[in-house]
Amino acid sequence: MADMRTPLSRVRGHGSAKSGTDHFWLQRLTAVANVPLVIFALASVVALVGADYATVKAYLSMPVVSILFLLLILSGVYHMRIGMKEIIEDYVNGEGMKLLSIIGNNFFAAVVGLACIYAVLKLGFGG
Amino acid sequence: MAETSVKAPGRARPLSPHLGIYRPMLTMMMSIVHRFTGGALYFGTLLLAWWLIAAATGPEAYSVFMDVATSWFGRFVLFGYTWALIHHLLGGIRHFIWDLGKGFELGTVEWMARLSLAGSIILTLIVWAVAYAMAGGL
Which of B62, B107, B121, B131 is the most exposed place for a label (fewest CB within 10 A)? Predict the structure, then answer.
């Protein structure tokens, strides 16, 4: 039987799914990164309980703190975007609603991620 | 052959058994809660964004955030946020163990579920006890 698939399609090995296991791998990769970053963020917030504005601002302006928060935001937002996509694909059955949900998921992740990054950079650069 | 092809379009198709047929078990509930806490944390990032933006905006914006965050409702939400975060984190660690191909024995699965549930509650209480100690009491 003649194989209608192109050699490139065959070597990629994805078939009709169009993509492979990269989302699975990225979900785990970001999960591994999130563990220490979340513990750091939680410890930071607890340590800042009861602190005044100047103290909070000074803490969030430290380069190491900024970098760790930026890493958390990038890794966390990517992780949650993949996770919510999986939930949508499992429970939203109508094609139109599914498409809208996936668009909304991407927009939400982009807006939250960019807003957090902007705030952290502004604090870090002392604006 | 002919009969089935005629009847097929209008007939309700059989569905495979779903959640409704199972007796609730701890491991199953933990799996559901892992997904639920993931969804909650997804929307919880709005609070992180609000906190960071308020801090970057100025003292007035920050005090508005703090007024809401320290109200009884704010504390209730943040307590739930803390528990969801720790529960999801411990659940994630269980998934790492399974990803390594270990911990699939029934007994192991059961005690890992119990340990992470108890751990999530105990660690949440510890975090809040430390937070209240930092704030100098209630």
Answer: B107
- Please check whether residue B82 touches A, CB under 8 A: yes
**CB < 8 Å to B132, chain A:** 49
Binding-face residues of A in 88-117 toward B, CB within 8 A:
108, 112, 115-116
Structural domain contains residue A63: yes
Structural tokens at position B131: 């937070």
The SS3 of residue B100 is coil
Q: Do B134 and A118 touch (CB under 8 A)?
A: no
- Neighbouring residues of B32: CB distance < 8 A, sequence distance ≥ 6: none
Position A26 confidence tier, pLDDT thresholds 50, 70, 90: very high
Average pLDDT, chain A: 92
Q: Do B62 and A53 touch (CB under 8 A)?
A: yes
DSSP letter for each residue of A2-59: ---S-HHHHHHT-GGG---SHHHHHHHHHHHHHHHHHHHHHHHHHHTTT--HHHHHHH
| Chain B contact set for A31 (CB, 8 A) | 92, 95-96
Contact between A50 and B45 using a beta-carbon 8 Å cutoff = no
Domain harbouring B65, CATH code:
1.20.1300.10
Report CB contact under 8 Å: B96, A127: no
Q: What is the CATH number of the domain that holds A69?
A: 1.20.1300.10
Which pLDDT tens digit goes with each residue over B41-87? 999 999 999 999 999 999 999 999 999 999 999 999 999 999 999 99
Report residue A19 CA to chain centroid gap.
19
